[in-house]
Structure formats: C-alpha cells, structure tokens
Amino acid sequence: QVQLVESGGGLVQPGGSLRLSCAASGFTFSRYTMSWYRQAPGKERELVAIITSPGGRTNYTDSVKGRFTISRDNAKNTMYLQMNALTPEDTGMYYCKGEPGYWGQGTQVTVSS
C-alpha cells in the first residue's frame, strides 16, 4: 500500500522557518522524482519544488527560490522541504507527490503574526 505522510507544518511568524518532511512507503522511493506542492485558500494547487532521482537535480518556483530547499534521503525514504524567510504568501496546505501520481494528505503551513 502506497503511503506519503507529510509532517512539520504549523503556525510560524513572518521571517521564520519550518522544515517539512514526507515519509514514503509502499513503492521504490529512490527511483522516482518527488515534489512539493502547495494550495492556498481559494487558489489552485501549485508546484513549489521538485527533486529528481537519481541525480538529485532540483528546481523551484520563482517565488521560493533562495528561501526554500528541497532534499531527499533515499536511505530513509524521506523527502524534506526547508523553508526559510517565510511570508504570509507562503500560507497553505503543503503536499508531497511521487512521480507515479501518489499524493500525501498534506500538512498545513500558516505564516502569520
């Protein structure tokens, strides 16, 4: 059974940091490109960051470049998203996605003072 479980979301003040994790099981994690998406209230889901495997090449949407870092640990079947210098515009539900079309249930990130 394929599972993607996100964690690490929460409430943070503007300028703060959070580290999201996505724990994968039920498929060969190391073979697949993984990505983070987010969906703000009233908006469409958007791709935030992507990381390939093998190779670990990364790409980011322009609004998070220089602030977010995507990474993965294939030995632990886990992907991460380090988010720094958070702004209220980063608020939303964050989802991890596996290339075959697997989705997690999401973790909420709220940036507010």
Would you write up a description of this structure?
With 113 residues, this protein is an all-beta fold. The chain is built from no helices and 11 strands. The chain has strands at residues 3-7, 10-12, 18-25, 34-39, 46-51, 58-60, 68-73, 78-83, 92-98, 102-103, 107-111. Strands 2, 4, 5, 6, 9, 10 and 11 form a 7-stranded mixed beta sheet that branches. β5 and β6 form a beta hairpin. 30% of the residues are buried.
Sum up the structure in keywords.
single chain, 113 residues, mainly beta, seven-stranded mixed β-sheet, four-stranded antiparallel β-sheet, globular
In brief, what are we looking at here?
This protein is mainly β. It is built from no helices and 11 strands.
**Which percent range describes the beta-strand content?**
over 45%
- Helical coverage, percent range: under 10%
Order of helices and strands: EEEEEEEEEEE
Shape: globular
Structural class by SSE content: mainly beta
Distance from first to last alpha carbon: 40 Å
Radius of gyration using CA atoms only: 13 Å
The tally of helices reads 0
Number of strands: 11
Estimate the mean pLDDT confidence.
96
Regarding quaternary structure, how should these chains be classified? single chain
Largest sheet: 7 strands, mixed
- Low-pLDDT residue intervals, each spanning 5 or more residues: none
